[in-house]
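[job 0412] stage=fold_complex status=start
inputs:
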Amino acid sequence: NAGVTQTPKFQVLKTGQSMTLQCAQDMNHNSMYWYRQDPGMGLRLIYYSASEGTTDKGEVPNGYNVSRLNKREFSLRLESAAPSQTSVYFCASISGGWFDTQYFGPGTRLTVL
Amino acid sequence: SQQGEEDPQALSIQEGENATMNCSYKTSINNLQWYRQNSGRGLVHLILIRSNEREKHSGRLRVTLDTSKKSSSLLITASRAADTASYFCATERGGGTSGSRLTFGEGTQLTVNP
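[job 0412] stage=fold_complex status=done
writing structure:
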């Protein structure tokens, strides 16, 4: 099992460029999440997908869109990147129960110039 | 705003000492979880305590939960240099068709000196 994988690991964008961060899990989990982590801070939820076919906004959704492509894959898209979106992005998944734990990917470090 | 607030923000101790980190939160929860993050890496789950539990142990970890005070503490006993990391509490409030959602605190940076 690879667990939760994310691509790319690093990315540098110029302001206004677009890109898609990919996330995949091989644990047959129902729910998937995208977080961002800014320096010295905890994680903040951007979007999540409780189950295949559904997506919901988290705490900081502005400037992002998501797609739950299938049960395995959950992508995060920045349509017009801004310097304020410089951050480390983590994807996570959970089986779906209230008392399950989230499994995290290794993160994507994004810099927007 | 963050649901969980952690205290202290940074903690430096000697190897062999115990480390205690505290977490406070604002609303009712289903459970509270503690995660660890090594520098530049993803988060790793440590322990989960349900809202109807008061204390839980896992190896050198001891977690307490006081729902009346909306607070939790994480104790790491006999610390090792390898315990150096950031520790985050996360509260879970979701469920049903909306799914599980975690809200993270800002973390405590623990440094264990050899």
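[job 0412] summary: The mean pLDDT of chain B is 89.
[job 0412] exit 0
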